[in-house]
Amino acid sequence: MNEEPGAVFDAHVRAEFVERSVDATMATMTDSPYVTHVPVLTGGNGRDEVRAFYESWFVGRWPADTQVTQVSRTVGQGRVIDELIVSFTHDVEMPALLPGIAPTGRKVVLAHVVLMGIVDGKVAYEHIYWDQASLLVQVALLDPAALPAAQAAGVDVAN
Questions:
Q1: For residue 13, which of 52, 76, 47, 62 has the smallest C-alpha distance?
Q2: How far apart are CA 87 and CA 15, in angstroms?
Q3: What confidence tens digit (pLDDT) does each residue in 72-98 have?
Q4: Considering the entire predicted model, what is its pTM?
Q5: What residues contact residue 81 under an 8 Å CB cut-off, 6+ apart?
Q6: Is 50 helix (H, G, I), strand (E, B) or coil?
Q7: How far is CA 114 from the centre of its chain?
Q8: Per residue in 50-75, pLDDT tens?
Q9: Where are the alpha helices (DSSP H) in the chain?
């Protein structure tokens, strides 16, 4: 199977977020995949751990209003790198991003970078990055005034 890498990425994300099917998600993956959510170290290594992660932590564990918007895509050297904006209302537990945190009801708009390795038309790995401090500020678990960021210092970042 030599499907275009971007199409493999899109099928995988569709299985996760549209179909909300662990079986469909796993069907897009190699026999020995791994997934790492870098900011919180959730994920799994090997087919059994990845399936367990998707079943318990990820697939179907996203708010109903979740939207994924692609900003950019780079394809080459056996991988796809997408910049995405993921938005949602934190009205359900989300153990993959906010382990142990009860729903806050807050709106979140969060940039992500996903590196997805493709081998023989299947997903071999995913490295997923986002700014955890930004997420924690948006769900009111971290005071932005205490952070070394431009807005906390009173800098107008809009201009």
A1: 62
A2: 18
A3: 999 999 999 999 999 999 999 999 999
A4: 0.86
A5: 73, 74, 75, 113, 114, 115, 116
A6: helix
A7: 7
A8: 999 999 999 989 999 999 999 999 99
A9: 5-17, 22-27, 47-53, 132-138
One-letter amino acid at 51 equals R
Backbone angles phi, psi at 109, to 5 degrees: -130, 115
* CA–CA gap between residue 150 and residue 155 (Å, rounded): 5
Give strand pairing partners of 115: 81, 127
Q: Which among 66, 64, 32 is positioned nearest to 50, based on CA atoms? A: 32
Give yes or no for a contact between 30 and 119, defined as CB atoms under 8 angstroms apart: yes
Distance CA 27, CA 59 (A): 14
Q: Which tokens sit at 72? A: 């950019």
